[in-house]
Amino acid sequence: MTPIAALGLVLALLAVAAVVGWLLARRGPRVRALDAGDGGEGIDPHEFGAEEFGLTGTVVQFSTVYCTRCPATRRTISQLVEHRPGVDFVHVDVTDQPDLASKYRLTQTPTVLILDGAGVARTRLSGTIDRATLTRELDTTIGGTR
């Protein structure tokens, strides 16, 4: 094998590995626990068009009209929150609110923030978010069903 052919083969293998890695990373939700260093101040509920947040916690979903996964995520969150007293759900359509999208560094929708009772963001989820992941993160962040 010539050096040029070997180099071409190595580059092709690297390209395939990069594509496979990218596809695997995009497949599941990205979950990130937030701490005080990530902006531990409480969020103003009026910023999202809400009068107040839940006493125990609040789930905030950011979506756009172009998001095909957002309606299913919204239904799932609504169902989960329904069985959690003191937990509210706020849906925010950022299609025409680029300032909010920029402030919260939204690079994809749906993006979900789970806030504690003080309105401090404790967990951030992005991408295709399944019911099991949402349930686990709600339980971890603001406690199980009561």
Task: List the quaternary state of the chains.
Answer: single chain
In the CATH scheme, the class would be Alpha Beta
Cα end-to-end separation: 67 Å
Main β-sheet description? 5 strands, mixed
Q: What sequence of helices (H) and strands (E) makes up the elements? A: HEEHEHEEH
CATH topology: Glutaredoxin
What coarse outline follows from CA principal-axis ratios? Answer: elongated
Strand pairing plus helix content: what structural class?
alpha+beta
Helix fraction, binned, reads 25-40%
Q: Which residues sit in consecutive blocks of at least 5 with pLDDT less than 50?
A: none
Q: Provide the domain count.
A: 1
Strand content: 15-25%
Compute the average pLDDT: 85
InterPro entries: Thioredoxin-like_sf, Thioredoxin_domain
Organism: Leucobacter weissii
Protein name: Thioredoxin family protein
Pfam family, one: Thioredoxin
Q: What this model shows, in words?
A:
With 146 residues, the protein is of the alpha+beta class. It has a single domain (29-142), classed as Glutaredoxin. The chain is built from four helices and five strands, in the order αββαβαββα. It has helices spanning 3-27, 70-82, 98-103, 131-142, and strands at 30-33, 57-63, 87-93, 111-116, 121-126. A five-stranded mixed sheet has the order 1-5-4-2-3, covered by helices on one side. α2 (70-82) links the parallel β2 (57-63) and β3 (87-93). It starts with a helix and ends with a helix. The model has no long low-confidence stretch (mean pLDDT 85).
